[in-house]
Amino acid sequence: MTNTSEKTRTNYTVPLITITLLFFMWGFITCMNDILIPYLKKIFALSFIEAMLVQFCFFGAYFIGSLAYFVISYYKGDPINKIGYKAGIISGIILSAIGCALFYPAATFSVYGLFLGALFVLGLGFTILQITANAYVSLLGPEDSASSRLNMTQAFNAFGTTIAPVLGGHLIFEFFADADGSISAEATRIPYLIFAVILLLVAVLIYNVKLPSFQAEETETKGLGALKFPQLRLGVLGIFCYVGGEVAVGSFIISFLEQDSIMGLSESVSKNYLALYWGGAMIGRFLGAISLNHGISATKKAVYMVVAATLVFLLIFSIVNLDFSQISFFIGFIVLNFVAFMIGKSAPARTLSVFASINVMLLLSAIFNSGELAMYSILGIGIFNSIMFSNIYTLGISGLGKYTSQGSSLLVMAILGGALVPLIQGAIADSEIGVQKSFIVPVFCYLYILYFGIYCSRKLKNVAVGQNVSGH
Length: 472
What we know:
Main location: membrane
Radius of gyration: 21 Å
Low-confidence stretches: 1-10, 462-471
Helix content: over 70%
Keywords: Cell membrane, Membrane, Transmembrane, Transmembrane helix
CATH architecture: Up-down Bundle
Order of helices and strands: HHHHHHHHHHHHHHHHHHHHHHH
Number of helices: 23
Shape: globular
Membrane topology: Multi-pass membrane protein
Largest sheet: none
InterPro entries: MFS, MFS_dom, MFS_trans_sf, MFS_TsgA-like
Distance between the termini: 33 Å
Number of strands: 0
Number of domains: 1
Strand content: under 5%
Structural class: mainly alpha
Protein name: MFS transporter
CATH topology: Growth Hormone, Chain: A
Mean pLDDT: 85
């Protein structure tokens, strides 16, 4: 049994590396939305709610796409099971590349509606990847190491979201900007064409790499039987709140730091701090991958977590255009993250509750304070977002049996939160309440996640973290 397991791991190394590259690009392009929002807001003189249509169209595509997939699966059978994971992943990449290529006519004609259409197509492509790639990674090896594989691939997804504000921001705000330094829609043409070409190259690579084929037995589950499980019903709203809260905070960070009462920073500087927000998620996911590994002793686990945190922090420091004095505050959040993991004791519901409560406190601090304290508070939220999606997902589908696939598709639909919550916050930011106080919206999101964690810690026992874990 052991030899077979070792052989399986060896044979899956190349496919896993290939899919990890896809996760990186996926995260990079998704995070580019946070750069586009303030950029397009200035070009088209948009209100906050109009600018948040960027996230509405992108994440709304997740809902439309997953709903269509659910309906097709219900009446015709699982499409991915019919065409295979490899074909499904490649089709998702190609559709995403088309979405990136559509930025060229949108930028050429400088029409906001065309940008939104391109983002919708891009979101549909990522929806297919969401449905296929995460599940595929869980199959690339023994079931007992699925958690480790998924957390590692998602950590590289977070690596993409970390460097996107810096590299993507440089491309749009500086490298491809007008010679006189003014901004125009045309600065997005070449960067997104480059993204389209890279995605197509990844598709070609995946096509030529020998990927193992998996096919599941289809079980008929007529009706919405999954909804009879309370943990799934609550988990769907939990995913809605988590993705909504995470995206809303990331979408407003640059505008938040531009406020004179906070830091009064320019976009070119703010994008480096935005990288810290997403970099925190990367640190937390690497730490989570180690913390969730029950095959090593507590002492070794602590050592590995310290080493991993140090290396990833140094990596982030080498990426962002900030000196050590500007980034050193983040060490305190890493230490707090360690403490939170110890309090959570690797129990999914308990850890979720601890992380959610910390984010509520950080948001309240950002709302009621000013200057560096408010900035530090908002940037620290990312590291405590890290394990939320996986824990909510795991708890939501626990005990569903034959309804697991159906429940999973319903959880993916709940990514709709990334479309609606930023829109709600945008409407509040446009009012006399303003940008800073608008962060009360994600406060309610994390309060619900706190409730969900408490509920599951009382109702669900012995749920193993890492089973059927998926990332956003």
